[in-house]
Amino acid sequence: MTKAKTILSIVTVAILAIGMAFTPVGKLIKIGSTAPKLDLKMEDVSGGSFALKDLNMENGLLVVFSCNTCPFVLRWEDRYGKIADACSKGKIGMVAINSNEAKRSGNSMDDSMDAMKKHAEEQGYQFKYVLDKDSELAIAFGATKTPQVFLFNKGLVLKYTGAIDDNLKDASKVQNDYLIKAIRNLSNNKKIDPDTTPALGCSIKRVSVKK
Fold it and tell me: What is the pLDDT, as a whole number, of residue 11?
């Protein structure tokens, strides 16, 4: 077989493989969009099951795509308590979503429900932490990173999305506390500016599916 034919064969196999399996990623929802999959029930570390509509409060709902082991999450996680307090004071619900389906079986169980329960207990989570089976909610949101936040008003219309703040490494050196300010402004019916910031984090570990 000539070199050209060998290369062509390799390319053909690669194209066929891509055609047979892909990792689904939805289109990122925009400011002004209504939260998707409002009725989707997800198992919480408490043993209950909740949909987004169940967790919405008087002034809205904060959705945080998170996980157990991502270095970006672990760096920002020390701020989750402060965020939960701000939500509670502002009468806004809060839920963390674990969509890492590829890390729940085989050699990697880092984001299994058992691991989530352990992590939530160790970190003292005071909010719901639910398992997004098959990354269904992440795909609907177009979420691609952990952590990645989506703040909705009481009508579950998106008002802020993106990053928690502007300093991954050191909470004491944060200059722009994007999410906390957005939560306070939302609860006081004030304009949120900026309403969109770039999310920085690990990729959500979806499972490739066959077409």
Answer: 41
